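Structure ticket #2291
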Amino acid sequence: MDHAGRVLLVTDVQRDFCKGGALAVPDGDGVVGPINRLARNYDLVVLTQDWHPPQHQSFASQHPGRVPFEEVDFRYGLQTLWPDHCVQGTPGAEFHPDLDIPHAALILRKGFRAAIDSYSAFAEADGTVTGLGAYLRDREVRFVDCVGLATDFCVAWSAEDAARQGFRVRVFQDACRAIDLNGSLAAAWARLSARGVTLTKAG
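Resolution: structure written out below.
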């Protein structure tokens, strides 16, 4: 396949989202091999990295009486409260040790503002753009291929925003894993399909 004009967007393949991590995605480690194989075929690869300050407001620990996976109203909409995870400078925030993409061109950190969460690589939860769209357009990218963790949150939001910004988008389902919180995976697939995102498999 010709990968000219394409980017592989690798979302949050970090220790805390894998086995033994603070917010482990079921079989999260299972994405590493497929992603490594895929990445060899791309000239342009972008990695995202959750990078939260210790007092991030998406953490249930910052809201007395609340527990992880509850939803609360923030000024930008409903926010799921999470266990503390991917805290800046901690081992849990590091990439999975077997992720092997030495030619990755960019590491985009997100969620580093304490009051605002950021699932998408293209825009924070309040709509502030990250600049990734402009970065890709400057490199004549027209197609965004999405993989990583977790399918129903950061991967799906990134894929939706990429489509919203005019890119043609694919999600490789076998190179993603989901949390599937209260039907969130089915809802994500429905939203992606409505946006014209192609759901496919790497192998």
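Closing remark: The two ends are 13 Å apart (CA to CA).
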